[in-house]
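re: ur question from earlier - yeah i can do the single chain one, its not a big deal. heres the input i used so u can compare w yours
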Amino acid sequence: MRYTEAKDRSAELLRLALGRMGAQAAALNPHTYAVWYEVVAGINPPLQQAVAALVDAGSAVDDEAVQRLLKAHVTPPDDEMLERVGHQMQGLMAGLAQTATQTGDRAGAFGVQLGDLAAALKAQDTSQLSPRLVELLEGAAAMRDAVSALQGRLRADQQEIERLRGDLERARGEALLDPLTGILNRKGFDRLLQGLLADPHDAGRSHGLVMLDIDHFKKVNDTHGHLVGDRVIQAVGQVLRTSLRSAAHAAARYGGEEFALLLPDTAPEDCLALAEEVRQRTRAMRIRSRHTHEVVLTVSVSGGVTTLRPGDDAPTLLARVDAALYASKHGGRDRLTRA
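and the output i got, formated as tokens:
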């Protein structure tokens, strides 16, 4: 399920989305709302980055831009989309190969006609010149038509390939998201982390990494069941999404009940402050019964916070933040440790 926000939260997102929609040029229709809802909800990092790039460049988010954003980042692919794209690509390649073969055959025939004319000229056989010239003119026209057909096919196929590439990019983006929380999954986290490791940061700032783990989560599942456990994970994911302070920041479900925040080009004290905000907001959550609306449990998180250091690679950085996380666990939980 793509949208998991509760009624109160979705009402607040409606207000925020309408405010952003009213400031832009696109029509106030469901397509535009879908784009801005996912932006203000913080559930679609690639979309947030694309919209931020448009706004930063001073470009209007008009109807055309909304359609591009919708197709590239919002509309979920069909279950059989990848297979369909593969078949369409095969069809394109087969059709292109056939057109190219026909053009090659036409070129071969045209070459034979040129050879016949050259032979007639060399033999000074005037009786053969006229029919050879007629054949050559006909061959040139056929060759021109074949080349034109090939060029047209290439143009059409290029447009179709670009469309299919967009479909694949959208599917790839969906493959990087955790379906339960709507934030990055482990694969998405790993990919973004590798990008950060290769990206320099400004002086006085760094790339921050926060690792968080839900305290006593096994007890939640054992006492209340896995459905409630899923609701807890969804709620923590929502806290992470809505706590991000920059379009460049990203939240991820690292695995099970463990989460991560990737904070590019952020001051170390800001990384710690954001992690503390997440900890406090999680502690303030109330998980209620769907039937009685009574509070059934509260949860807390323990976390480790670190920033990229010279010489760090992914294992070094992850080991350091993991050690800080476990120091919080062993130190009494519901706390952060900075490493």
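Residues 99-175 form one domain. not sure if urs matches, ping me
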